[in-house]
Design goal:
heterodimer, A: about 110 residues, mainly beta, six-stranded mixed β-sheet, five-stranded antiparallel β-sheet, 11 strands, about 60% strand, globular, B: mainly beta
Chain lengths: ~110, ~110
């Protein structure tokens, strides 16, 4: 069963713009992770934020976590064509990593 | 490191046939996961191994599915007999320390059951 739900389902932006996607989940978590999946490929880990952290940065990525609202957001700044992919949040409850349905991001040149 | 290696990358078979998917995790990782991805259901966790021992197989859809991990460097997912609704992309992922850290995914095995 899917623990996390991403919003929006799809996003189309111009190169150079920022992309923001949100993830909501239902139960308490140990950590929350974001992954990227290019078409026809496996998932690639982007960033992990622990339940006691509120914000984390990695290059052009910024992730926030609000455990009181059971939500997280992923911001990609200064998007590039290579950022075109599906993005998934995944919540860690004990040993299980449950993935949301994903946000498909298209970056137009 | 070559990463997680899955084979075959593509498999087309007929209903009723046995399908075996293979996975070689990253050396040194002690956790292995099998996921299934479909458009309708997204990514579903099928089974999780820790130190070669199946910890949770509650996601395995039916008795037709079985998974083994005979040693730290090899795992198989078997479907017997296969059905058209088993058509999906099957991913293997490995990590050190379960889901507390980063999972490394293979490129997946795309299964089509006719």
């Amino acid at each position: 069963s899917q623990q996390g739900e991403e919003d929006p389902q799809a996003l189309s932006i111009q190169e150079g713009e920022n992309a923001t996607m949100n993830c909501s989940y239902k139960t308490s978590i140990n950590n929350l992770q974001w992954y990227r999946q290019n078409s026809g490929r496996g998932l690639v880990h982007l960033i992990l934020i622990r339940s006691n952290e509120r914000e984390k940065h990695s290059g052009r990525l910024r992730v926030t976590l609000d455990t009181s609202k059971k939500s997280s957001s992923l911001l990609i700044t200064a998007s590039r064509a290579a950022d075109t992919a599906s993005y998934f949040c995944a919540t860690d409850t004990d040993y299980k990593l449950s993935f949301g349905a994903g946000t498909t991001v298209t970056v137009r040149a | 490191d070559a990463g997680v290696i899955q084979s075959p990358r593509h498999e087309v078979t007929e209903m009723g046939q046995e399908v075996t998917l293979r996975c070689k995790p990253i050396s040194g990782h002690n956790s292995l996961f099998w996921y299934r991805q479909t458009m309708m259901r997204g990514l579903e966790l099928l089974i999780y191994f820790n130190n070669n021992v199946p910890i949770d197989d509650s996601g395995m859809p039916e008795d037709r599915f079985s998974a083994k991990m005979p040693n730290a460097s090899f795992s198989t997912l078997k479907i017997q007999p296969s059905e058209p609704r088993d058509s999906a992309v099957y991913f293997c992922a490995s990590s050190f320390g379960g889901s507390a850290g980063e999972l490394f995914f293979g490129e997946g095995s795309r299964l089509t059951v006719l």
